[in-house]
Structures are given as C-alpha cells and as structure tokens.
C-alpha cells in the first residue's frame, strides 16, 4: 500500500503587510483557491487540512468541509502574526495521522500540481533510500554576492568568471515542504535533521509577503495565462 499523504495548508484571517490577502481576488479567484486547486489536482494527496481562524470567511467564499478537505479551527494560543508556523504545524501533526505531510502556503499561487507530484516522488525515493528525512524547495542562484560593507562573498572581483561557472547557492523559497512525524519530532520543524532540496521552476516561485510581491505575482500570472501555461 502507498503512503498516506496529507497536505497542510494553514490560512489566517489577517495579514500584516497585505491586508486580507488570502481571500482577496487574485487574477480571477480568491488567492487561496489557486494553491488549493493545485493540491486537489494531485491524486497522491489523500486529505487537505486547513488550520485557520477564518472558517466564516472561507464559508463566504464557498469552502466548507468535504470528504477530502478538513477545516480545523486554530486554537487561540497559536493565533497571531508572531506565532511560529512550526507551532501551527505541530498542532496538525499531533492531531492528524499521516505517513507523509506536505506543507505549502496560500501565498504560493503559481505552484503547479506537476511540481507537487514531482516533489512527493523525490521525497518518497529519498525517504525509502534512507538518504533524507525531509524535503524543501529552493531557488538555484548563480550570481555575485556582497556583504553590506561591499566585501565579495562568493567570488573574486579580481578574477571575474562567467556567473554560470560560479558555485550555485540555494535559497529556501517557502513554496513546499515534505516531512513525516519522525522528522518533525527531531527538530520540531518542517525541515528535519537530514533534509534534501528540490529546485522548483522559476516561474512558479512567487511567495507573496509584501505589496510588491503581490504585484509581481499578478504580472507573472497574467503572462502565464496569456501563454496558456495555466488556467483560472
């Protein structure tokens, strides 16, 4: 039998930098629906858990519990902008049994079902081989970095080489995490003690935290819609 996979999609009513962003119209539908629809299109995902303090707002947007979507009311002690996301995830892991947990955000509207499927497959392979206990997505970056004091970090200014020949650096992009109960127990975090990384497609890596992020994601979404790469 295959492993049970549960997707964790935390969702709060308020946002400090982009007010009410989770429920605002984003290129034709509420922001949360973009990633939710991508998750629902992945057959490997058995259940989607929405840990939220916004059940009423979700209901107003037509989202209620189904056989595949479970809305969990967030406990008061883990509500608020200053609460670590790992505490919210711990509440879900403690109360929802699964072999594999997949965590993503409403702020990742362009993450595709194909990339989610690829991540699940890569994580399962690494887990079965004993090569990793968790997985997270990253952006691969090859460019020249400096400190605030203009000191070169990853290159020699006196010996310039093409950027494609620089050692690649990897940026956690907050798009997707995969872990299990055992790995979470070791670190009390979504990234375990022995993680592996997966480079996700650059066009899908929007993570909306600020108004500028929102505007860039809108531009990218319209581009992808015009190219027929995605659908509303």
- With strands numbered from the N-terminus, the spatial order across the biggest sheet is 5-4-1-6-8-7-9
Q: Quick one: biggest sheet?
A: 7 strands, mixed
What is the terminal-to-terminal distance?
Answer: 34 Å
Coarse shape: globular
**What's the pLDDT, averaged over the residues?**
96
* Strand fraction: 15-25%
Secondary-structure class: alpha/beta
Tell how many strands the DSSP assignment holds: 9
Q: Give helix and strand order, one letter per element, not per position.
A: EEEHEHEHEHEEHEH
The poorly predicted ranges are none
Number of helices: 6
- Compute the gyration radius: what is it? 19 Å
Helix content: 25-40%
Primary descriptors:
232 residues, alpha/beta, seven-stranded mixed beta sheet, 9 strands
Would you spell out the secondary-structure blueprint of this structure?
Elements: E1 5-8, E2 25-26, E3 29-30, H1 31-40, E4 47-52, H2 55-60, E5 69-73, H3 85-95, E6 100-103, H4 113-128, E7 134-141, E8 169-179, H5 181-187, E9 195-199, H6 211-226
Parallel strand pairs: 1-4, 1-6, 4-5, 7-9
Antiparallel strand pairs: 2-3, 6-8, 7-8
Explain what the structure shows.
The chain is an alpha/beta fold. It contains 6 helices and 9 strands. It has helices at 31-40, 55-60, 85-95, 113-128, 181-187, 211-226, and strands at residues 5-8, 25-26, 29-30, 47-52, 69-73, 100-103, 134-141, 169-179, 195-199. It has a 7-stranded mixed beta sheet, sandwiched between helices. Strands 2-3 form a two-stranded antiparallel ribbon. The chain is globular, with a radius of gyration of 19 Å. The mean pLDDT is 96.
């Amino acid at each position: 039998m295959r492993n049970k996979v549960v997707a964790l999609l935390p969702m709060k009513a308020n946002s400090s930098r982009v007010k009410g962003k989770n429920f605002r119209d984003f290129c034709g539908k509420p922001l949360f629906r973009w990633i939710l629809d991508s998750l629902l299109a992945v057959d490997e995902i058995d259940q989607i858990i929405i840990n939220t303090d916004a059940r009423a707002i979700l209901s107003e947007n037509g989202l209620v519990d189904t056989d595949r979507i479970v809305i969990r009311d967030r406990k008061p002690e883990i509500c608020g902008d200053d609460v670590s996301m790992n505490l919210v995830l711990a509440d879900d892991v403690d109360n929802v049994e699964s072999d594999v947990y997949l965590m993503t955000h409403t702020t990742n509207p362009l993450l595709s079902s194909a990339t989610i499927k690829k991540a699940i497959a890569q994580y399962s392979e690494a887990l079965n081989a004993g090569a990793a206990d968790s997985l997270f997505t990253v952006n691969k970056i090859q460019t020249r970095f400096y400190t605030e004091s203009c000191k070169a970090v990853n290159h020699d200014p006196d010996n310039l080489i093409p950027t494609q020949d620089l050692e690649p650096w990897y940026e956690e992009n907050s798009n997707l995490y995969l872990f299990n109960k055992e790995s979470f127990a070791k670190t009390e975090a979504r990234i375990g003690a022995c993680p592996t990384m997966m480079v996700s497609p650059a066009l899908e890596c929007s993570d909306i935290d600020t108004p500028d992020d929102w505007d860039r994601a809108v531009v990218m979404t319209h581009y992808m819609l015009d190219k027929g790469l995605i659908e509303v």
